[in-house]
Amino acid sequence: MKEQLEAMRRTAEEQIKNFNLRSELEAFRVSFLGKKGELTAILKQMGKLSAEERPAMGQLANEVRAYIENQLTEKSEELKKKELRDRLQKEKLDVTMPGERRELGHKHPLSIVLDEVKDIFFGMGFDVATGPEIEWDYYNFEALNIPKGHPARDTQDTFYITENMLLRTQTSPVQMRVMEKQKPPIRIIAPGRVYRSDAVDATHSPLFHQIEGLVIDEGITMGDLKGNLETFAKRLYGEETKIRLRPHHFPFTEPSCEIDVSCFRCGGKGCPMCKGEGWVEILGAGMVHPKVLQNGGIDPEKYSGYAFGIGLERIVMFRFEIDDMRLLYENDLRFLSQF
Ligand code: PHE
User: Fold this and answer.
1) DSSP symbols for 166-190
2) How far apart are CA 141 and CA 1, in angstroms?
3) Is the CB of 211 under 6 A from ligand 1?
């Protein structure tokens, strides 16, 4: 029995040394020291011993058990440390490793120019006003002196939601909404999306952008319109830029005009950029019609004003020499990353 115990101690020592997992240790503990374990089996034979032999053998058995338990605890501690070391090693963060670069986006050309336009008008004391893209027929047409059946509706055909509700064809309805809420002096721009039922081609889109402008005060004249918009054109395209007013007709301004800017490419001589004209049309404008002022609750005897509508796509395309409007909406990075 003594030999059995000694042999057991040696085997245990040997095996414990070679374990690599704590789960192995536990299985070993059960098979050696557990109720059905080897040591218990040996101790069961104690009954066969004489009364004199028993205490010494009992002591030895206890020693062996204590020894093995001790070994198991030590090994378990050692493995615990090793596991921690391995884990730390595995989870180590290498701060010197190059990161994954995320490409930084930037403003869309429409936004680049819109922001510039806003800055220019802010500098001249304008505020920004907004209106809904789904608009009442009243604001989009009626109040702007375009009654049902007026030929001006033909050129601004749009998408109707009901008979009286539509996608606005112009930002001009914002003029009326501002007049209803604010008394003169008024000095606002209203940028936004507008819609027309146009087929898509290089110069048309059913959705595009305008920047409306409205100035109303006592004694506003065509001279203010011309001076302010000339300043705007020079700030946007450079000091040498000239503007040209051509007579035109809009039902909600009187007199009305279209404004061209001299081509910044050729300075007015004519080139492919301006299609040989020397000039490029960028906006429609005029003195606010007395009827429109009245519709907005403003006394046309006391106040006068001017309004304008800039085509954002136009000035962007001219500015960046883009020859196809579709490029502005296709979100092709090969195009967009050039700005
Ligand atoms: N709303 C007009 C258009 O879309 C432009 C315009 C605005 C003209 C303001 C005069 C005054 O064509």
Assistant:
1) EE-SSSTHHHHHHHHH-PSSEEEEE
2) 112
3) no
Ligand 1 neighbourhood includes 251 CB (under 6 angstroms): no
**Centre of ligand 1 from the C-alpha of residue 45, in Å:** 111
Residue-by-residue pLDDT tens, the chain, 339 positions: 788 888 888 888 888 888 888 888 888 888 888 888 888 887 788 888 888 888 888 888 888 888 888 888 888 888 888 888 888 888 888 888 888 888 888 999 999 999 999 999 999 999 999 999 999 999 999 999 999 999 888 888 899 999 999 999 999 999 999 999 999 999 999 999 999 999 999 889 999 999 999 999 999 999 999 999 999 999 999 999 999 999 999 999 999 999 999 998 888 898 888 889 999 999 999 999 999 999 999 999 999 999 999 999 999 999 999 989 999 999 999 999 999
3-state helix, strand, coil in the chain (%, to 5): 45, 20, 35
CA 81–ligand 1 middle distance (angstroms): 79
Distance from C-alpha of 62 to C-alpha of 66, rounded to nearest angstrom: 6
Distance 212 CA to ligand 1 centre (A): 8
pTM of the predicted model, to two decimals? 0.72
